[in-house]
Amino acid sequence: MKQKIHFSAEAYLGLFLLGILVLLAIFTPGFFATNNVMSMLNRFSYILIAAIGMNLIILTSNIDVSAGNLISVVCLTIAALGKLNAGLPILLPVAMVMGALLSLINALFITKFRIPAIVATLATAQLFSGVLPLIVEGSLYDLPRSFTWLAFEAKFLGVIPGSVLIMIVITIIALLFMKYSRFSKKIYAIGNNAEAARLTGINVNKVVLVAYAIAGALFGVSATIIATASQRVTTTMGTGLEMTFIAAVVLGGTSVAGGSGKVLGTVFGAAVLSVIAPAVNYLGISSDWSDAIMGAIIIFAVIVSALRLEGRKQAAPAATGGASL
Questions:
Q1: 268 within 8 A of 55, measured Cβ to Cβ
Q2: Beta-bridge mates of residue 233
Q3: Which of 192, 244, 197, 227 lies closest to 53 in space, CA to CA?
Q4: Chain mean pLDDT for the chain
Q5: By the 8 A CB rule, do 202 and 186 touch?
Q6: pLDDT tens figures, 65-122
Q7: What are phi and psi of 69, to 5 degrees?
Q8: Residues 280 and 41: beta-carbon distance below 8 Å
Q9: Is the dihedral of CA 310, 265, 221, 76 positive or negative?
């Protein structure tokens, strides 16, 4: 009797991505030109790094819809430092610390004042986007060439962009961290049932605070990659990106209710989303369609996630009942 082969959600997503790439290779021969590939890799790097941070937050059964505006704030801050000829060794740590601190504000609202994550982060998103135009009139421009060193000159072995190397290092650390660290077990436990996790001795508030801080630091890394791609940084550099990060996480199989999901799924989710927008533009289709496709993917992923959650809920009592017989 033949045994059925079961693929994981990550494997299905990987095959889906492979199918997209094959179709693009067949029907759009110029799509894989060096410049286009480098541009996609740069986009993939900042989406994935931020999505890994968003994955941590969603696993705790929370959300952060302020990530895009937070990135805009960090972009302008390091642009101001760039005006003073500060290099990447200063810009990157400053961005990570600032991202962590701004993200901690969200976490404090959620843990100390018991404000739902969606409400707290919506409020800070409005705060960030409202304050920026008061500080900067539109943009900071005429930044020195040293500011864009990461985007145009930092190449590993003369080929691999520096942003991609940073992404690879962070992804490997995240994969190991989520597989082997005790902290990741606490994150999954909180996402599955915060009250049960509390009863087992886990300091829920502390874990959520740390998760938001780590995510904020990763948002800071993404902000550095985004800002240093140009000698002009605007007040809207990160606007709307939070939906892309959330979509990458949910598409990668992480439950919107928290408690389940893998970094590998987020890698594939971010890769799919990094390819779609350039592909739509390359095919000469209005960029509005890429937003519509992204929205459709989010809806599809959320529905699949909800169905999985419902399936787990139905399976749990059945398993309990079976055990008692």
A1: no
A2: 140
A3: 244
A4: 88
A5: yes
A6: 999 999 999 999 999 999 999 999 999 999 999 999 999 999 999 999 999 999 999 9
A7: -70, -35
A8: no
A9: negative
pTM (2 d.p.)? 0.90
Distance, CA of 50 to CA of 67 (rounded, Å): 9
Structure tokens at 288: 């509005």
More confident residue, 159 or 188: 188
Identity of residue 262: K
- Residue 2 corresponds to which tokens in the numbers above? 């033949």
The number of angstroms, rounded, from the C-alpha of 152 to the middle of its chain's C-alpha atoms is 23
For position 312, what pLDDT does the model report? 66
Name the token pair of 56. 């941590």
Q: Which spans in 116-161 are helix H?
A: 117-135, 149-152
pLDDT digits (tens, 9 = 90+) for 239-277: 989 989 998 998 888 988 888 899 999 999 999 989 888
Enter the tokens of residue 179. 């597989």
Q: In sequence order, which ranges of the chain are alpha helices (DSSP H)?
A: 9-27, 34-59, 67-83, 88-112, 117-135, 149-152, 162-180, 182-192, 194-199, 204-227, 241-251, 263-282, 287-324
CA trace torsion 180, 181, 186, 188 (10° rounding): -40
What is the phi-psi region of residue 146: left when phi exceeds 0, alpha when psi lies from -120 to 50, beta otherwise?
alpha
